[in-house]
Amino acid sequence: MDSTQTGAASRRRRLERSSGLGSLFALIRERSFEYLSLGLACTVVVLIGWIGWRLFADTALTRHRFGFEFLTKSVWDVPHEIYGASTFIYGTLLASALALVIAVPLSIGAALFLTEVAPRWLATPVAFLIDLLAAVPSIIYGLWGLLVLCPFVLKHVSPFLVDHLGANPLFVGPARLNNVLVAGLILAIMITPIITAVSREVIKTVPPASREASVGLGATRWETIRRVILPEARSGITGAVILGLGRAIGETMAVVMVIGNTPQIKASLVQPGYTMPALLANEFNEAFNVPLQLSALLEVALILFVVTLIVNASAQLLLTLTKQHITGKTERFPALSDFARNGMDLLGRYAFSVIVIGLLGLQVVSDFRAYGPGALGRGFEIMLVAAVLVTAFVRFLSSKAPMVKWRSVVDKLMRWTLSVSAFVACFAFGTLLVYVAMRGAHGINLDLFTKLPTPAGVPGGGLKSAILGTLELVLIASAIGIPAGLLSGVFVAEFHWHRLGALVRFAADVLNGIPSVVIGLFAYAAFVLPFGHFSAWAGGAALAIMMVPTVARTTEEILKLVPSSYREASAGLGAKKVQTIVKVVIPAAKSGIISGIMLAIARIAGETAPLLFTAFGNDHVVTNPSQPISSLTLKIYVYAISPYQDWVQQAWAGALVLLAMVFVFGLIARLATRSSPATR
Predict the structure, then answer these.
(1) Which domain holds residue 140?
(2) DSSP string, 134-200
(3) For the chain, which terminal residue's Cβ has fewer other Cβ atoms within 10 angstroms, N or C?
(4) pTM score above 0.85
C-alpha cells in the first residue's frame, strides 16, 4: 500500500513538473509571438526615420557647399558643379497644380455619383472601373501618354489653346510635343481614383439620418448633397485632395516620359518642364561616379521626401479627425481637432473657387492687354459672360421655394453632371485599355516569352529575361514584405497597445504615400552603395519596403472584421491568445489577407523607379540574386523612348503582358475578398 501511494505521488509530481514546463513554454511562445509582432510593427515607424536619416546623411556635400541656396538657385550645371533645385521644384508644383485643377471636380463628382445618385447595380461596376485606374502601372500611363496622348494634344488641343487663349501666359506658344499640359493630364487621370475612393469613404460616414431629415423637409437630392452632405464631409474631402496632391508630386515614370525634361521656369503649359522625380530618374546613371552630383540628386530626393511626408501626414491626420467627428467618436484634443477641421473646411470651400476665378481673371486681363476693348467680342469673354448670367439666373430661381418644378429641373441637371464626372473617368480607363490591347496584341508571340532581348537595331528577340526578372524580384520582395506586413497588421489588430498601434497605423499610411523614387534612392544608399554593386537583392528589398504598409493595413482591417465571438469561443475552450490568433482568427480572415497580399504584389509588379537605382537591368537570365537583374517595367521604359520601331512594338507587347499580370492579381484579390467569411 505504501509503495502504491509512493508511486502515485511520484507520478503526480512528474505531471506537475511537466505541466509547469508546458505552461512556461506556452508563456514563452505567447511572449515571443507578441514581441516579434511588436518588433516588425515598429519597423514601419523606423523605416520612415531611416529613410530620412539616410538621405540627410548622404547629402552632406551639397548641404555644406550650397546651404539654403540649393533651394533658390535655378542653375543645374554639372560640368561647373553648380546645383540648384528651384527649377525642378517649380516644375513639380506646376504639373501637380494642373492635375488637381482637372482631377478635383471629376473626382468629387464621381464620388457623389457613386454614393448619392447611382443605383447599386450601376455604382458597383463603375466604382470597380475607376478603382482599376489606380491599378494601372505608371509606366503604362507613360507609354500611352508618350505615344498616343502627346501627338493627340499637339495636333488637336495645343493649337486651339494657342490660337484662342494665346494672350494668356499659360498658353503662350509655340506648342511642343512633350509639355506640362500632357503631364498634368496624365497625373489627373492617375490621382482621380485616389481622390474618388477616399472621398467616397468619407461621404459614406455621413449619418443616413442627416439625409433623411433633409429629404423629409422637402429638399431635392441635389439640395441635400449641397447643403448637408458636402458641408459635413468637406474637410475629409480636402484631406483626400491633399492625398492626391502627394501622389502627383511624387509620380516619376509617367511624368518623365511626357513632360519634356527641359529645366526652365515658364508659365506656359504647352512648353516643356522638369520635375524633381524626373530629374532623379534621368540623371542618376550619370552621377554614379560623381560624388557632388550624386549628393545633389539625393538632396532633391530629400526635399521630395520631406514635402510628401508633410503632405501625406497632414492628409491622414485630417481624414482621421473628420471621420471621428462625423461618427461622434471621442477626440483626444477637441480644440486642436476643431481648428484643423475648420481650417481645412475653409480651404476646401474657397481654395478651388479662388483658383478658378484667378485663372479666368488672368485670361480676361491678358486678352484686354493684347486686344483692348475688342476682347469683349472674343469667344472666351462671350462664353464667360453667358456662363455668369446663366449661373445667376439658376441661383435666383432655385432660391424661390414655390418653384418646385424648376428645382426639380436643377436637381436632374446636377445629377446628370455628377454622372458625367464618373463616366469621364471610366472613358479614360477604357481608352487606355483599348490602346494597350490593340497595340500590344500585334507583338504577342512565342518569341516574346522564350527569347532574350536583341541588341539595338537588331530585329527580333523577346522579353524572357525581363519576365523572369519580374517574377524573381516579386518573389524576393514577397519573402521579406509579406511576413513583416502580416505580423505588423496582426499586432495592431490583436494586441491592444493602443497608442503604439495608432502610431504604427499612421506610419503605415504615411509610408504608403512616400514616392517610389525616394524609396529607390534610399535603397540605393542603404543596399547598393555599401556593397558596391546593383543586385536583385537590393531591388527586392526596395519593393519589399513598398509592400509592408499595404499588407499591414489590409491585414489589420480584415482581422477587425472577424467577429469577437470567435475569439471568445476559443478562449472559453482554454486556448491561449496566440493559439486563438493562429488557429482561429487568421484562418477566418485568410481570404481577405490573401486579397491584401495580391494587391501589394500587383502594386510592386508594376513599379519602375525603385529598380532604376537598385536592380539596374540585365539582358541575361539571372539566377544569382547578387547580380543586376531586368524587369518588364525597365524594358518597357527603355524600349518606349528608343528610336527603333521593333523595340517600341515590344514595349506595347510588354505593357499588355504587365497589365494582364496586374489585373490577374487584382482579380484574385477581389474574388478572395468576396469569399472571405470575415467580410460577409
Answers:
(1) 89-273+393-441
(2) HHS-HHHHHHHIIIIIHHHIIIIIHHHHHHHHTTSGGG-S---SS-HHHHHHHHHHHHHHHHHHHHH
(3) N
(4) yes
